[in-house]
Write a structure and sequence with these properties.
Length: 337
């Protein structure tokens, strides 16, 4: 199928979301609701004024607002409600499996028990599976701009609930914090039976992607768009079938690409790399996964065949069970008609 699919067709396409920070789904409206509930004072007079701040010059300017706004998240119920709202929206946009990143260090340092964070999010995931048919799990992300000792401590705390975790990841400010700093904590997580992924090659150089693979032993690369600058790395990613979880609208908003029409998404796939489309921090970056698919179609062109490949790759690259993957691939078959 070479025709450009409609918005409704792209939303209906069964897919997995593999690069989604649950704190990054905090819409201004919910931020004000939770602030009122928890007695938190936001430095903005209205939802509209907060929304106006969602304009960024780079990754750090986004992170400053991201960490400040998440202060409204205080209780297990807050984390559950945040997750429920994301899952409802994701379900409406074709997501059938979601692997959610979360940043427990940013909450524990505010005095929030890690149990409240993990139980709130995982409880809502269980509800989503029951009520919406979305399977999924949690990926604990270490903040790379915090000391490695902090990452080690948060892993120890999280491993008291090992059944709640799919894996570990690495996020936050990239430049100046190479993956190799986290060699030991990733080894410990892998030894505990957890999957491993890492943000690399977003603002950082292609060498960070190589480190994430060789030093951290990751199974997927989050972002990874700067691999396009290194032909040998592209060949390796293709040969080793390492998936990239790409976030087109995020890359535009954080100015890692000048405009969506210049995004390397299709070029990465044409080089034989496994590529998926995701939304990253959709409340801040102007769109959930469906909007990312439609934006790619409008800026780069996206045939039904291409959209299907991206969706099938997302399912293949997920950490879902073999049986669940087969079920989801059959759902894509049905979408084709």
């Amino acid at each position: 199928m070479t025709a450009q699919p409609s918005d409704s067709a792209l939303y209906a396409l069964p897919k997995a979301e593999l690069h989604l920070h649950i704190e990054g789904t905090l819409e201004p409206e919910l931020a004000f609701e939770l602030a009122a509930r928890n007695g938190v004072s936001l430095p903005y007079d209205s939802v509209e004024q907060l929304a106006e701040q969602y304009e960024f010059s780079d990754l750090q300017s986004f992170l400053d607002l991201y960490y400040a706004t998440m202060d409204v998240l205080r209780t297990e119920d807050d984390f559950a409600e945040l997750t429920r709202r994301y899952l409802r929206t994701a379900s409406e946009q074709g997501v059938r499996h979601a692997e959610l990143f979360f940043d427990p260090q940013a909450h524990v340092e505010r005095g929030i028990p890690i149990e409240a964070v993990v139980d709130g999010i995982s409880g809502a995931i269980a509800e989503g599976e029951r009520d919406l048919g979305i399977s999924g799990g949690l990926i604990l992300c270490f903040l790379r701009d915090q000391p490695v000792e902090s990452a080690d401590a948060i892993l120890s705390a999280a491993l008291t609930r090992p059944d709640r975790l799919l894996g570990v990841g690495l996020d936050s400010a990239e430049v100046g914090y190479p993956p190799e700093l986290f060699r030991d904590v990733f080894a410990r997580a892998r030894d505990a039976g957890l999957h491993a992924v890492a943000h690399a090659g977003e603002e950082g150089p292609p060498a960070y992607i190589v480190q994430a693979l060789d030093v951290l032993g990751v199974e997927r690369i989050d972002h990874g768009i700067r691999a396009i600058e290194d032909p040998a790395l592209l060949d390796r990613l293709a040969e080793e079938a390492v998936p990239l979880t790409v976030c087109p609208l995020s890359n535009v908003r954080l100015r890692t690409v000048p405009e969506l029409a210049a995004h390397p998404l299709h070029r990465l796939e044409e080089a034989g790399v496994l590529v998926t489309i995701n939304s990253d921090d959709p409340a801040y970056f102007g769109g959930y996964i469906g909007e990312n698919y439609t934006a790619v179609r409008d800026a780069l062109g996206l045939t039904a065949d291409q959209a299907e490949r991206y969706a099938r790759t997302s399912i293949h690259a997920s950490f879902a069970s073999t049986a669940r993957k087969a079920e989801l691939q059959q759902a894509v078959d049905a979408w084709r008609g």
